[in-house]
Amino acid sequence: MTTRTQSVDTPAGEARITWHRAPKPRLVLAVSHGAGGGIEARDLQALAAALPARGITVALVEQPWRVAGKKVAAAPKVLDEGWRGLWPALVAPGLPVVAGGRSAGARVACRTAAELGAAGVLALAFPLHPPGRPEKSRAEELTGAGRPALVIQGDRDAFGRPEEFPPPSARDPYELVEVAHADHGFAVPKKADTTQQEALLTITEAVGEWLGRLPT
């Protein structure tokens, strides 16, 4: 695996892509961070470490607000604008690109996947609703993505537990994998009968298996 960092100018400002290249890539998985952190998130780093060996180049995307050192995420419209602006750099290698992200990044991927021609959508810790506000559902962003989708969700996620998600349908298909004892950041309590490493392995194995089945 080789790693390279690329700066990309977008209408929302300078974005940054850290490429974790597979030796013989067959597709690119582009994943962005959430509103409360960057690409150092444990799930993003686990994917970047595990997937290149499976022929998947992982592109970790930092949104312009994060590159600029701001502490508060930009508005959804600006996040989408930044993602659209860096998309040409993601497709430049000439491989199918799966759009993904964690939390707010997952919402961006869902909202833009169809128009950008993404091969699929990976939603890590999709924020189905604000904590304690299940009536403020964002399910339509996920079900309306218009692309095959995989959701990875902790069973203690305050932004939406797996059982709160609407059932997939023939019109709005998606798959959901539950991570036992994990919260919104996929952190697992030390007292749980699942270790942190096992939780991350659940994520990387599920994503790798799904990408292996994804029509490209």
- Beta fraction of the residues? 15-25%
Secondary structure: helix percent: 25-40%
Rg result: 16 Å
Q: Report, as a whole number of angstroms, the end-to-end distance.
A: 22 Å
> How many distinct beta strands?
8
Give me the strand/helix succession.
EEEHEHHEHEHEEH
Please give the largest β-sheet.
8 strands, mixed
The class by helix and strand makeup works out as alpha/beta
So what's the overall shape?
Answer: globular
Q: How many H/I helices?
A: 6
How are the strands of the largest sheet arranged? 1-2-4-3-5-6-7-8
Summarize model confidence as the mean pLDDT.
Answer: 95
Secondary structure blueprint with pairings:
Layout: E1 2-10, E2 13-21, E3 27-32, H1 42-50, E4 56-62, H2 64-67, H3 76-91, E5 97-102, H4 104-116, E6 120-124, H5 139-143, E7 149-154, E8 175-179, H6 196-213
Helix pairs in contact: 1-6, 3-4
Domain KANL3/Tex30 alpha/beta hydrolase-like: 28-210
Organism: Streptomyces virginiae
Pfam families: Abhydrolase_11
Q: Explain this structure to me?
A:
By secondary structure, the protein is of the alpha/beta class. 30% of the residues lie in helices and 25% in strands. It is built from six helices and eight strands; from the N terminus they run βββαβααβαβαββα. It has helices at 42-50, 64-67, 76-91, 104-116, 139-143, 196-213; strands spanning 2-10, 13-21, 27-32, 56-62, 97-102, 120-124, 149-154, 175-179. An eight-stranded mixed sheet has the order 1-2-4-3-5-6-7-8. α1 packs across α6 and α3 (76-91) packs across α4 (104-116). The longest helix is centred in the last third of the chain and has 18 residues, at 196-213. It starts with a strand and ends with a helix. The model has no long low-confidence stretch (mean pLDDT 95). Keywords: Hydrolase. It comes from Streptomyces virginiae (Streptomyces cinnamonensis). InterPro entries: AB_hydrolase_fold, KANL3/Tex30_Abhydrolase, NSL3/Tex30. This is Hydrolase. Residues 28-210 form the KANL3/Tex30 alpha/beta hydrolase-like domain.
